[in-house]
């Protein structure tokens, strides 16, 4: 992570330092050495305590009511995503492949971050394509993730959305959400994420319907995604 602070030091002209000055500085450093050593002993453990090594902690779940598979499914993937989030773009093909390979539902929730300038509109656009078919809506999400690096402004998002609509034979209206119902649905997803306790995107869980097994487990390390799905399927088999 880049620091948000930057310290600038002005250049100074080199000056001659006499042997006497060097000697005084040496004596001063010698006198301060014990104090510096004591400070390092006192403060180093505190710094180490704040350093994070290994995978990040899981998301604290405040309201788990929504973390369950849809009716008829034993295991599912639940994701909260932001269409402008680069890490969501990296995760997208991995989750898509897993859902297809295991034939389990993949429930995608919108969580557009406020500092992204086009992610909310992209989520609204996806809801518009959902009305044509859920498959088309998800294809649009995949398309936006695949082209995310080329989209920097809302105007560019509109251009890519128009291309997608034309390629799929959909007439894109001037206003895709004249009544604001798609925007309201996106806001409801965002509010749901806040109730659950979402802190970042993507946030991904493997969820089960069994009361005898863990109802949900967060996928913190995506290299273990298949392992977690295998475990969930094994634990719900026969129940």
Automatic annotation (TrEMBL):
- Please give one Pfam family short name: Thioredoxin_4
Q: Which InterPro entries match?
A: Thioredoxin-like_fold (IPR012336), Thioredoxin-like_sf (IPR036249)
Which residues belong to any copy of the Thioredoxin-like fold domain? 72-206
Protein name as catalogued: Thioredoxin-like fold domain-containing protein
